Here is the input.
Amino acid sequence: MILWKLAQAIKRRRDTLKLTPEAREMRNLARFRDLVYFVQEMSPWYRRVIEQNRIDPSTCRPEDFPVLTSAMVRENFDDIVTDRAITRQSLEAFIKQSPSSKDLYLGRYNVVLSSGSSGIPGVYVHTTDEVINGMSYGALHRQIKPRTRTTFLGVLDTHDMGAAVMGLMDDWPQRLLFNTRNFDITAPWPKIIAGLNEHQPKIISAYKHYLMTLADEARAGRLNIRPILLESGGEPLFPQEREILRSTFQCEIANSYGSSEVNLMGVALNDWEGIYLFEDDLIFELGSESTCVTNLFNKTMPLIRYRFDDILVPVDVPNPRLPFRVVSESIGRSQELITFETGDGDEHKFRTIFFDEGVDFSGVKRVQFEKKDSDTLAVRVAFVEDSELQKLTGVSSDTEKLEQLRTSIRQHLDDNELNGVRLEMVKASVEDAGPEARIVKDGKKERLVLHSPSPRATA
Here is the structure.
């Protein structure tokens, strides 16, 4: 049954690709109004919103609705969902008793926990059909043949969207199509590497920094696999990181944009112009400080104009590969927001994700930013091997490259009226500590271990 539904969803995706953007928008508007009729009948919270804002379901548009935040979802959870059997109290009890993503709430709902990328951690429910619909987006960039060996690397015993999707692939009868072996990131690292060498996956899905750690292992000769596709998600993938992955594994790299609330929302492949947004089931409203998304497919927990603290920058593509809008792969979120006072009573906010637009990070393996105190910005940088650094950048040493970065970032701060901010540049190492000391097993950010002694440049 699941394989049949997946095939139907994939067919819908392919049929959508044949529509012009104008035809798709008209179809989506009709689907949106059908959704409004549905929530008016089934959701007490949306019924009140429609009445209070005098919204006519027959003529309405998404912008007629107020913006929905994660805090509002949390406060109005029981009234937003369309199944009256779902309650936040019983859901929280279920999560405590059933930690695995394979356990279904009320016997029919997949539970997904949000890490709080929009400010407040949340819990979201999806039917299996809704999860399958999100899975089908992979057909746009995956070349899966029967029994293709696939792997998900992450936390398995948790209510995570990636674990839920890969868990479905690992169950019977999906195993007839997918040869899936998933690895729990909390397991001993040598055991994970040995398992990957044995399984020889062709497709690996993981957070970016897990994939980067696999690249370290491959370069060290401990990991010997030949994947055809690496799927990165959960955190930004910078150009220099993509190049390291591609040169190490000689395969395609997919940069997936998704969320716990919605599932997959866009993807970029190796040489694509940016991330193509999946606008067949989603309506995006791009703002200067946030993005609102309306999900046309998920009706268990309807999200109309749900706000993500993501900054999506449109990219003009004359001949797009897909009939969807394209945005920059530099997607800023609140976690990358750093605020400093300018010295005249004002403050300036900037997102470190956008540093790559004015700073040459070629030859950089990892970079992290930290506001150490009210007037100090620390930047930790890990470089590729010396021979590769010279080939990529033309500089003879990582000390010289560190000084170039210091100059560029200093200029960026000065251009943004942050002359008073003290800059610390520190060379970091990922080799001095084993993977198990670096990998964050319950989050998305990798820890960098500083050299001792650490060369430092300040300004």
User: Anything to note?
Assistant: Confidence is low (pLDDT under 50) at residues 450-457.
